[in-house]
Amino acid sequence: MPSVPDTRSSLQQEVQAVCIKLVARRGLVAGLSAPSAAVLLYFVLDEEGMLPTVPFWSWFACLCLALFIQLLVDAWVLVHKPDARMLQRWPRINAATLVLVGLAWGSAGWWLQSPSPLFTMMLYLVLAGVGALVMIVQSAFMLSVVAVELALLLPGMLHGVLGVGRMAQYVGVASFLYFCLLCLYGWVVHRQLRHGVRASVQASLLNEDLMAANVRAASALEALKREHKQLQQALQTIERMAHVDELTQLPNRRAAMAELKRLVEADATAALVLLDVDHFKQVNDNHGHHAGDAVLRGVAERMLACLRQDDLLARFGGEEFVLILPDTELADAHTLAQRLCDTLAAQALPVEGARLPVTASFGVTPHHPGEALHGWLARADEAMYQAKHAGRNRVALLP
After folding, report:
1. Helix/strand/coil for 315
2. I want to staple 396 with a disulfide (CB 3.0 to 4.6 A). Which of 28, 50, 171, 387 is the partner?
């Protein structure tokens, strides 16, 4: 049974990747701006005249080294696509480098000790600001927040334990309380940030799913359109086959009967010509059925060339054709039938290298008002047989 992908796990990995990129971008900006706070301490020490008494440059070098390591970690994340291994290892690596940064900042309380109240106040204000900034930057990962804040404020807390005097105790208690406050506020920000990132990722994934669904729907619609077009073409082909004679490409008996029925129901003025190719059996017997088919096609082509646009010539069956002439009187129908008869007899049809003389017998009759269809057809058939009995190759009228 194929395994089903864990959607929840995939969502968590995507949220983790977004948070890593977010923290790396924020950390890169914060790391580049951090030395400015150290420069501020330099100017205060210089103003107080205590710069020669403290190892400021040694402390500053350690701070810059720790910041440089942290910047390398952030830059490496930004130029690489997070994979499963990075998602697991980066939070611990980031926390470890932040411990170095926190210790570098916090050690200022030991390295830069001064009897000046102004510098002491400025120092702890800078450390408090750094702690707040790091908490905001690293709030996506509580491990990093706890690690950096503990490393940053640990020297102050130890100063309260190991130092002498009430001021040392105040500094220790204040450091501990500030540590707890930053961790608590960091947890609140962490929850809110993670919730926001998760909602954003879910919306992005949903949007991707919707776009993919739209693409699939569009593809399905195109497939349905193609199938619909093919069905329409098939229906047109079937309809054409149902109403067109395959050999002569003329309307077939069904189409002719439908037109005759329409004229009868409308009680319209019309004439009907029924014709039969003379001695057609002999053509099949002497020259083969291929020749017979060629004769039928040739007869259809010659007659079509003499008809009006509204006239309907159809193959009625075998060698028999029917010509429906709407809005035509008997005299005009007789004239047209005679012209068709003469045209067929005037020139032999070329059939498979030979020329075969072809004639036909025509029966012409008009439609009588109120006359039924079968009666009209019966009179046309009778007229055609009169032409055959009279010697063929002629036109017979039956008013």
Report:
1. strand
2. 387
Q: Which of 14, 319, 371, 382 is catalytic?
A: 319
- Mean per-residue pLDDT of the chain: 87
Q: 123 by DSSP, 3-state: which?
A: helix
Q: Rounded to whole angstroms, how far apart are CA atoms 137 and 139?
A: 6
pTM of structure: 0.52
Residue 333 has pLDDT above 80, yes or no: yes
Cα–Cα distance, 109 to 104 (Å, whole number): 10
% helix, strand, coil for the chain, step of 5:
70, 10, 20
Q: What average pLDDT does range 207-224 have in this prediction?
A: 87
Q: Which of 87-101, 111-125, 137-151, 353-367 has the lowest mean pLDDT?
A: 111-125
Residue 35: predicted pLDDT: 82
Mean pLDDT of 25-36: 84
DSSP single-letter state for residue 251: B
Q: Token pair of 193, please?
A: 């940030």
SS3 category, 40:
helix
DSSP state of 4: P
- What is the Cα–Cα distance from 135 to 248, expressed in whole angstroms? 91
| Mean pLDDT of all residues in 319-329 | 94
What is the Rg, in whole angstroms, of the alpha carbon atoms belonging to the chain? 52
Q: Is 211 left (phi over 0), alpha (psi -120 to 50) or beta?
A: alpha
pLDDT at 299: 94
Structure tokens at 86: 């990075």
Cα dihedral angle (341, 347, 348, 350), rounded to 10 degrees? Answer: -120
Are the CB atoms for 98 and 34 separated by under 8 Å? no
* Residues sharing a CB contact under 8 Å with residue 149, sequence separation 6 or more, in sequence order: 102, 131, 134, 135, 179, 182, 183, 186
φ/ψ of residue 261, rounded to 5: -65, -40
319 counts as catalytic: yes
Residue 46, pLDDT above cutoff 50: yes
DSSP of 308-366: -SS-EEEEEETTEEEEEEET--HHHHHHHHHHHHHHHHHSPEEETTEEE---EEEEEEE
